[in-house]
């Protein structure tokens, strides 16, 4: 499938599933929350398209590292946009996580069109993390997730219009798309939205750098890759960043970004 077609179908299935589970979820959102949900969905949908276009012009490993730079952009943008001071332990954790991502992902690096596009997507992901951290609450998490899914679907569908729209060709492909829509899409976004009602954006961004660590672990577990020194060192650095934000004095992070509510 064309990438935009795949993304539009994936998020459409996720949106339909969330609305079917709780139809009034979006209508129960306040007007302000609906506006915020649309804004978050646009940021995430555009980030998906830009990241995917960037991947056409660079390697997967470099794309993974550059995308992971949202761990750097998140505290920087949070400090600028929300004017809150970021604690020194958070910066140490950001550096550890960034180096760990580099060890896990990089095998040569050059800055071209693909890298610049991917860097732009990382900035959008950082803005999405900041927005979720500031606007999500346990009460609006489901409705906000459903509205984001609908908006992401529209954004990706617009991206799919130029080349026409195609569907998966076989049962196996449909199963893969449905899995990505429901588990890696709907469930993941609900969990992230709910969790960010309880976490500051920088803490969330650092936690999300565990993604390549989990990817490496599953690749080894399912026999597609073998354990390497890069995996062990890079994974250890990322996990060290995780432990640092959990073990450092909590007050260093609690005042970092407030939830804005209504």
Automatic annotation (TrEMBL):
Residues 5-105, 114-245 form the EamA domain. InterPro entries: Diverse_Substrate_Transporter (IPR051258), EamA_dom (IPR000620), EmrE-like (IPR037185). Keywords: Cell membrane, Membrane, Transmembrane, Transmembrane helix. The chain crosses the membrane at residues 6-26, 62-82, 89-110, 116-135, 142-162, 174-192. It is a multi-pass membrane protein. It holds the Pfam family EamA. Its main location: membrane. The keyword Transferase does not apply. It is found in: Cell membrane. The keyword Cell membrane applies. It comes from the Bacteria. PANTHER family: EAMA DOMAIN-CONTAINING PROTEIN (PTHR42920:SF5), OS03G0707200 PROTEIN-RELATED (PTHR42920). Belongs to the EamA transporter family. This is DMT family transporter.
């Amino acid at each position: 499938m064309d990438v935009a077609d795949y993304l539009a179908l994936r998020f459409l299935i996720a949106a339909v599933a969330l609305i079917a589970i709780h139809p009034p979820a979006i209508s129960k959102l306040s007007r302000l929350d609906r506006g915020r949900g649309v804004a978050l969905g646009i940021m995430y949908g555009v980030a998906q398209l830009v990241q995917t276009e960037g991947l056409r012009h660079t390697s997967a490993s470099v794309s993974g590292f550059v995308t992971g730079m949202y761990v750097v952009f998140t505290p920087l943008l949070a400090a600028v946009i929300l004017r809150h001071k970021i604690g020194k332990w958070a910066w140490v954790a950001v550096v550890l996580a960034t180096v760990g991502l580099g060890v896990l992902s990089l095998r040569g690096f050059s800055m071209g069109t693909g890298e610049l596009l991917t860097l732009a997507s990382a900035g959008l992901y950082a803005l999405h993390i900041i927005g979720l951290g500031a606007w999500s609450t346990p009460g609006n998490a489901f409705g906000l997730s459903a509205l984001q899914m609908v908006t992401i679907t529209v954004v990706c569908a617009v991206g799919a219009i130029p080349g026409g729209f195609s569907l998966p060709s076989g049962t196996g492909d449909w199963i893969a798309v449905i899995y990505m829509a429901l588990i890696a899409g709907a469930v993941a976004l609900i969990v992230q939205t709910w969790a960010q009602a309880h976490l500051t954006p920088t803490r969330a961004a650092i936690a999300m750098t565990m993604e390549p660590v989990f990817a490496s672990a599953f690749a080894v577990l399912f026999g597609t890759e073998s354990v390497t020194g890069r995996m062990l060192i890079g994974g250890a650095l990322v996990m060290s960043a995780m432990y640092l934000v959990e073990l450092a004095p909590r007050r260093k992070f609690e005042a970092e970004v407030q939830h804005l509510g209504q």
